[in-house]
Amino acid sequence: MRTRADIECWLTDMDGVLVHENRPIPGAAALLAQWRDAGTPFLVLTNNPIFTPRDLSARLRVSGLDVPEDRIWTSALATAQFLKSQLPGGTAFVIGEAGLTTALHEAGYIMTESQPDYVVVGETRMYSFEAITKAIRFINAGARFIVTNPDATGPTPSGVVPATGSFAALITKATGKDPYVVGKPNPMMFRSAMNRIGAHSENTGMIGDRMDTDVIAGIEAGLHTVLVLTGISDDAEIERYPFRPDEIVASVADLVRKEPVESDLPEVL
Fold it and tell me: Which residue, 58, 56, 59, is CA-closest to 45?
């Protein structure tokens, strides 16, 4: 059976694994440094499509973690890559922020409000009745419905707020059309990430803090899965599911390779 020693490339979730409320999780900096020093290909994944990789790299740097922007893979980037593969040079009506619109522009897509090929819904803090109404009408007129990620709510310091999945459900109710969701738990998110770093499922591991997205998508993508307990999962949460990750560890600190300690005592012959 495959073990951690067989893993040559790593994918890791960000929130709950490397950071928590903009504070680094103990061991995260050491693990990232270990990968850099060893030349290990890796990507930091997030379902949040709001921010560009440059934004997220800067956010992580403030938290004390050095992750170059080319080591970050978002659901917005995965969505843009998927649309480019489906219909190069297409058009889209987009509900989202800079992370999504930038990714689509860079993929060669045109943003339009005139007979778009796709309606793409992502995360935004400024959902409007007008934009949702337009999305519904475009879908009813034949535009294909794409959603970056299925998360129904998102965390804030003052409590949860409705997120992409909630507004996608509203559009589905009004149109009778279910979206194609690109982000986790769709294993396509992981496959597109592996393509980005030239990795193969046989030698790639996924580190996450959620059973319902990170672990299940990792299993379906054929990866070695590691669940950390620094996010939302605990023993009770794990027991809710009929599947298990390959490993369960307290935190990413448990994945940092320990250097042997040299003894000052003389060797006994």
Answer: 56
Pick the closest to residue 185 from 222, 151, 225, 156 (CA basis). 151
From 237, 208, 226, 249, select the one nearest 14 (Cα to Cα): 208
Name the active-site residue from 13, 117, 151, 246.
13
The whole model's pTM is what? 0.91
Domain 76-181 has CATH 3.40.1390.10: no
Q: How far apart are CA 189 and CA 235, in angstroms?
A: 26
Q: Catalytic residue at 13?
A: yes
Could you report the per-residue pLDDT of 94-150, keeping only the tens digit for each?
999 999 999 999 999 999 999 999 999 999 988 899 999 999 999 999 999 999 999
Is 15 annotated among the ligand-binding residues? yes
What stretch(es) of the chain map to CATH 3.40.50.1000? 4-47+184-255, 76-181
Structure-token match 């219909």, residue found: 87
Give me the architecture of the 4-47+184-255 domain, per CATH: 3-Layer(aba) Sandwich (3.40)
